[in-house]
Amino acid sequence: MARSGTEGRGVLAGAFALMEVLAHGDEMGLTRLAADAELPKATAHRLLGQLVELGAVQSDAGRYRLGPRTFRLGQAWHPARVLRAASARALRELATASGGLTVTLSVPEAGHTIVVAGTRSGVEEVFALRPGTVLPPGSAAELVLTASAPGARPPAGWAEAEWAKEVARVGSQGLAFQFGQCVPGLSCVAAPVSSASGQVVAAVAVTALDARQITPVGDAVRRAAAVISTNLTRVPSAAPRGPGRRSVPGLPAARPVPARPR
């Protein structure tokens, strides 16, 4: 339900909420945009007008979509450069081994699981898995990342007992599976990628429209994750330049994914 006025968020937060909604869909009308962004319709209309003037959003016959300025800014985002370099060949080989299925590399960021690299295929018709995409809660990649964190709480929708079994399975098999529970019509399998210290920093996943294609590629996903982990151990550590600097530039901080509210 839309909030009254601008309670709970500032102008920038409201504008970004609208763009976040647009980033997950095609053209949208004002009513749906305002509802999905949890903004009053009048506030959404005002902010969209400003975003259109700035070129961040485009408008056509009352329908809105992201604009060219947002695209240009997005192209400048180059996350996890070391990780992407260490995984490039392994991801390509995994795409070939899986018969052209969608392959992704995801990292934990600000409580979300974000795709930073990969290949694309027919699953785009159901859910876009391009770099920058925030995966929905309960994805196989999130399960791998969360299960690898000591004492991690269950993601939304998971019972304690069910989650304990999943953590045990990920620990023993090194894989997490999802068959339509996360995104209807899509199935996926993911494996953890570890840094030189042994901490899980990313997840490799294969996603398909046909659930029957997922189980057979589990071993290939696990091997790809192992290759990437090995490549990361060969990256020379850089001397920290000050507080908060990562030892390897471009590598996501080795930290658990915060548990989502239940």
Principal-axis shape equals globular
Helix coverage percent of residues? 25-40%
Mean pLDDT: 80
Main beta-sheet annotation: 5 strands, antiparallel
Q: In which order are the strands of the major sheet placed?
A: 5-4-8-7-6
In N-to-C order, the SSE pattern is HEHHEEHHEEHHEEEH
| Gyration radius from CA atoms, angstroms | 20 Å
What class, by secondary structure content?
Answer: alpha+beta
Binned strand content:
15-25%
Uncertain regions spanning at least 5 consecutive residues: 1-8, 237-249, 253-262
How many individual β-strands?
8
- Count of separate DSSP helical elements: 8
Query: What is the CA-CA span between the terminal residues?
Result: 19 Å
Concise overview:
This protein is an alpha+beta fold and 262 residues long. It has eight helices and eight strands; from the N terminus they run H-E-H-H-E-E-H-H-E-E-H-H-E-E-E-H. It has helices at 11-23, 30-36, 41-54, 68-75, 81-97, 140-147, 160-173, 218-233; strands at residues 28-29, 57-60, 63-66, 102-109, 112-118, 176-179, 187-194, 200-208.
List the helices and strands and how they pair.
Elements (H helix, E strand, L loop, with lengths): L10 H13 L4 E2 H7 L4 H14 L2 E4 L2 E4 L1 H8 L5 H17 L4 E8 L2 E7 L21 H8 L12 H14 L2 E4 L7 E8 L5 E9 L9 H16 L29
Antiparallel strand pairs: 1-3, 2-3, 4-5, 4-8, 6-7, 7-8
Helix pairs in contact: 1-3, 2-3, 5-8
Model description:
It contains eight helices and eight strands. With 262 residues, it is of the alpha+beta class. A five-stranded antiparallel sheet has the order 5-4-8-7-6, with helices on both faces. A three-stranded antiparallel sheet has the order 1-3-2. β4 and β5 form a beta hairpin. α1 crosses α3, α2 crosses α3 and α5 runs antiparallel to α8. The longest helix has 17 residues. The N terminus and C terminus are likely disordered.
